[in-house]
Amino acid sequence: MARYVGLDKLGKLFSYVRDNGGIRASLYKLYRMDEMKAGRLVGEDKYGNKYFEDPSQFYGRNRWVEYAPHFNLEYDGSQIPADWFGWMHYKTDLPPNRDGNRKQYKWMADHSENLSGTTRAYMPYSTTKPKVDAWDPSKPTPKLE
């Protein structure tokens, strides 16, 4: 009967609030991530991202990442390292912190996020003269005759 009225959903909401550390922490998580979930902490990468899993959720929605606080609201999927990306997208069931077969060679580059669209994006400079000069409002315009 309680399931038909929706009291089980209210109980789940209270358990989420309790698992997230209270009302204030739950509202903060809801503000940062646009959803409030509770699950088992699987691991953390060296950048501070935390990875969670909740088998009671739908397959495809039961693994998620909480980005490190220093990203604020400027986070995206390229901030997940490749080994955790494989776990997040179900390529493996073993998270990288429990997988003993992963090797790190000295020639492997460290992970770096995609900086396109930010102020730190790579912008090559051109050595050719532009065909059209940009308008400078401080210069007087030449009179046409």
Molecular structure report:
With 145 residues, this protein is of the alpha+beta class. The protein contains four helices and three strands. The protein has a three-stranded antiparallel sheet, with no helix packed on it. Helix 2 packs across helix 3. The mean pLDDT is 86.
The geometry reads as flat
* Major sheet description: 3 strands, antiparallel
Strand arrangement within the widest β-sheet reads: 1-2-3
Roughly what fraction of the amino acids lie in strands?
5-15%
Using only C-alpha atoms, the radius of gyration works out to 24 Å
Give the SSE order as H and E letters: HHHEEEH
Uncertain runs are none
* Count of discrete alpha- or pi-helical segments spanning 4 or more residues: 4
Mean pLDDT: 86
Alpha-beta content class: alpha+beta
The counted number of beta strands is: 3
> How far do the termini sit from each other?
88 Å
List keywords for this structure.
145 residues, alpha+beta, 3-stranded antiparallel beta sheet, 4 helices, 25% helix, 9% strand, flat
